[in-house]
Amino acid sequence: MGKIVSTGLSRLVLSAASMGHLALSGRPHIRILVFGALCALLAAGTPSASYAQRVLGDYDGDGYSDLSVALVDRTARTTAWLTRVGEQKQPLFWTWGLPGDALVSGNFFGNGRYYPGIVFVRSAQTPLEWWVKNPSGTDTFFHYGLPGDHIPNQADMDCDGVTDLIVVRNGTPTRFQGFRLWYVALSGSGGIVQESVFGLTTDRVGVADLDGDGCAEQVALRGDTYQWFGKKLFGVDVSVVQWGLPGDKPLLPQDVNGDGAPDYVVVRPTGAGQVAFVRYGANSSGSEQIGSDTAVPILGKFRRAPGSSFAWTERATGWTAMRPTRGADLVFPFTIAANAIIRPDGTVVQPDDDARFGGPGGGGGGGGGGAF
User: Fold this and answer.
1) Closest CA to 151 of 139, 137, 167, 163
2) Of 98, 153, 320, 337, which is the most exposed, with the fewest CB atoms less than 10 Å away?
């Protein structure tokens, strides 16, 4: 299908509704429904005026990204989530009495802090259950999406300072077959859901700030060519950047050099450790060594210097490293092999995923399309 990535279609679908009410075939329709918990979550106050800089994965509000891992125990039917918020602070810990089928995080309540959540499939006939921790420490519960949907990382798509809810669905033989259908519940519009057709079913999809305006755009990465496609939710123009090779470990774009413009990053195993390759602009790039070939790469705002920096987790040993502005890497024990790793941008690397995408080397969840 060449470079086709979007039909250019984006439309209002419904308001604050269980996505189980969305037509899957035939002419899409608008249905206005009231869904209390979802409305309450998406209308959770006006973001603080002091929250000017949006920091990915900041769970304690100190202006820096934090590291998170989660353990889903299907035998005990529980999920446990641990977040490291600094060397001198006690870690944050949350639990659920359900085994999460997906892990989500975001600034859902507009206070500049990230909160964790799980998405649970109760049955193939019922909408997805979302259980999101709130500032009081309890769960906010609502239905959103259908079994079989992809759950990408969550982000602010309408620029109101609050994370919006996102599910992505494959097209059907009678409606947009081969394409991705996005459904985004917009916090700035009281939970109105916007539908957008963007990306192919074989693409890896997620959301990231591609223009430095502080809110996120849709991203689709094509595994055979490593073309990165980007589009605003309400726009029609599609950007294309080629960066990386099949089998690389892709990271969603972030501002690495502190110039206010997000950069494209892939991490490549070399046989003697892995190397991060960063595209700063059309004629500028850089690289640095980060961890062993099997390490899971991470990007976030971990230091005072402008821009994001690298961290990585060695699953075989349980050690994690963070790269400071100067001096030796900070190394500490943080995880076990059975844990999922939640990056600051909300992307999740499952225990059976080697974080690679495209090519014969992509193992676990890394070989085919899906969410980042």
Assistant:
1) 167
2) 337
Q: How far apart are CA 340 and CA 349, in angstroms?
A: 6
Whole-angstrom Cα distance, residue 336 to residue 351? 9
Does an H or E element contain 277, and which? strand 274-281
**Sign of the Cα pseudo-torsion (24, 30, 34, 36, in order):** positive
**Identity (one letter) of the amino acid at 362?**
G
CA angle 305, 311, 313 (to 5 degrees): 165
Q: Where are the domains of the chain?
A: 6-246+340-371
Could you give the dihedral angle defined by the CA atoms of residues 74, 76, 77 and 78, in that order, rounded to the nearest 10 degrees?
-100
- For residues 352 and 315, what is the distance between their CA atoms, to the nearest angstrom? 11
What is the C-alpha separation between 105 and 207, in angstroms, rounded? 13
